[in-house]
């Protein structure tokens, strides 16, 4: 009886997931390869004329190849921000975990506050203007790193809690300094949670719309999500081009989750158990 109930629950969950995710995705793919007239119907009819290449080229060439520039900006933003998040979060988590005390408790509270307190847009803009980084890609990178550190620190700290302190002591006896101890002994052991942080942070930063819209206005430093906002106003009657743009923007994070889903779950589960 329990087996039947479990099987029934799995079938229901699979059906709900199909309706919620696969049906809209199928509509998006079908609309992206239709011509303008047939795409206006917004239905599940099979394309009478496949226009994959034509729609793809029109989207790429729109507004002086802004989508290609946006892909470059998003790639630079994501890679640089994630690299800084991983290094800084891992180092901060190691110090917070190994040096418990009043200062550590205050720092831990501040890290937790980063997940609770919403970001302040106007003060951040003032700060970036004072530093001369407003409307620049380096300024946006610093913003993404600041907003993503708290989540990464909590994951790293939970994982580091399971690493025996005897490793630290043995390395120090062998003459390791603080940085050598971290990068040669501790950091290689953080590979599972590091992969999780890289993948989840990459998808979050690549899909971020609010921060690039506020902190890097204009086409020069536009990211792919901002171009989607502009495409929506430009092609609001050409659904085939709008959905083709959505497909091109959706593919990279979707592939990351498809191929690395098990690693993401394994890293988060290991951190939770070891915490």
From TrEMBL:
<feature type="transmembrane region" description="Helical">
    <location>
        <begin position="239"/>
        <end position="260"/>
    </location>
</feature>
<protein>
    <submittedName>
        <fullName>Raffinose/stachyose/melibiose transport system permease protein</fullName>
    </submittedName>
</protein>
<feature type="transmembrane region" description="Helical">
    <location>
        <begin position="108"/>
        <end position="128"/>
    </location>
</feature>
<dbReference type="GO" id="GO:0055085">
    <property type="term" value="P:transmembrane transport"/>
</dbReference>
<feature type="transmembrane region" description="Helical">
    <location>
        <begin position="140"/>
        <end position="160"/>
    </location>
</feature>
<keyword id="KW-0472">Membrane</keyword>
<comment type="similarity">
    <text>Belongs to the binding-protein-dependent transport system permease family.</text>
</comment>
<dbReference type="Pfam" id="PF00528">
    <property type="entry name" value="BPD_transp_1"/>
</dbReference>
<keyword id="KW-1133">Transmembrane helix</keyword>
<feature type="transmembrane region" description="Helical">
    <location>
        <begin position="12"/>
        <end position="33"/>
    </location>
</feature>
<keyword id="KW-0813">Transport</keyword>
<feature type="transmembrane region" description="Helical">
    <location>
        <begin position="181"/>
        <end position="206"/>
    </location>
</feature>
<feature type="transmembrane region" description="Helical">
    <location>
        <begin position="76"/>
        <end position="96"/>
    </location>
</feature>
<dbReference type="GO" id="GO:0005886">
    <property type="term" value="C:plasma membrane"/>
</dbReference>
<dbReference type="InterPro" id="IPR000515">
    <property type="entry name" value="MetI-like"/>
</dbReference>
<feature type="domain" description="ABC transmembrane type-1">
    <location>
        <begin position="71"/>
        <end position="260"/>
    </location>
</feature>
<dbReference type="InterPro" id="IPR035906">
    <property type="entry name" value="MetI-like_sf"/>
</dbReference>
<keyword id="KW-1003">Cell membrane</keyword>
<keyword id="KW-0812">Transmembrane</keyword>
């Amino acid at each position: 009886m329990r087996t039947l109930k479990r099987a029934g629950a799995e079938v229901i969950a699979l059906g709900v997931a199909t309706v919620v995710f696969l049906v809209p995705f199928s509509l998006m793919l079908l609309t992206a390869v239709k011509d303008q007239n047939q795409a206006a119907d917004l239905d599940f009819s099979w394309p009478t004329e496949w226009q994959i290449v034509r729609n793809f080229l029109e989207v790429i060439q729109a507004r002086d190849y802004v989508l290609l520039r946006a892909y470059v900006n998003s790639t630079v933003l994501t890679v640089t921000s994630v690299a800084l998040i991983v290094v800084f979060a891992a180092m901060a988590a190691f110090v917070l975990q190994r040096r418990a005390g009043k200062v550590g408790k205050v720092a831990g509270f501040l890290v937790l506050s980063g997940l609770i307190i919403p970001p302040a847009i106007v003060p951040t803009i003032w700060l970036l203007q004072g530093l001369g980084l407003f409307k620049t890609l380096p300024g946006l990178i610093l913003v993404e790193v600041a907003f993503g550190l708290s989540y990464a620190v909590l994951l790293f700290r939970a994982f580091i809690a399971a690493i025996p302190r005897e490793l630290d002591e043995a390395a120090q006896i062998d003459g390791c300094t603080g940085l050598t101890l971290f990068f040669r002994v501790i950091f290689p052991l953080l590979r599972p949670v590091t992969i999780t942080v890289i993948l989840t942070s990459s998808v979050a930063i690549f899909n971020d719309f609010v921060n690039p819209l506020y902190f890097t206005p204009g086409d020069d430093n536009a990211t792919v999500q901002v171009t989607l906002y502009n495409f929506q106003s430009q092609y609001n009657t050409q659904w085939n081009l709008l959905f083709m743009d959505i497909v091109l923007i959706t593919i990279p994070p979707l592939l990351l989750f498809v191929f690395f889903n098990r690693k993401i779950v394994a890293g988060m589960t290991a951190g939770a158990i070891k915490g």
